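Morning. Coffee machine broken again, so started the prediction first thing and wrote up yesterday's gels while waiting. Chain of 164 residues, entered below exactly as on the submission form.
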Amino acid sequence: MQTAQIIVIALAAVALVIYRQMTPRPAARRVGLIISAALVLAGLAADGDRLVDPLHPVLAVALLAAGLLVAVGLGALRAATTRVWRDQHGVAWSQGTVMTLLAWVGSIAVRVAMIFLTAVLGVNSSQGSMLLFIGVTLGVQFLMVARRASALPGTAVPGLQAAR
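Came back before lunch.
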């Protein structure tokens, strides 16, 4: 894939996810996990066997691993800022808050800073690493919100137990 295509896919996915997270939605939605998995697979496929810079393999792997750990942490942070509740029928709902939106802005800023750090260190960043980052951070967020929703007192929400 071309860099421009990767950027368009990533921005479109993030914009759609942020928009959807800011509106009340049933918490039992597997589409988030499907989107996350698709982004991870697209990230892995985007560069084929060139996910790691062959000229700086140790540094490239360290930066990729650090990026994925940061993605996990930021996903957990956004999940913690998401409001989760049950309605009178026992259906679990979730909605992003102002803090969730701020956490998204922070997530984007951190990712941009990591891209610049990679460039400053002279490591060729793979194009798919952006999709990997987004896929992992979304997956963690969706899983943690689903776990919080299934832990709410009241009637269990069908389908959330499988998302654990």
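Helices lie at 3-21, 31-46, 57-81, 98-120, 128-150. Going to sketch it on the whiteboard this afternoon.
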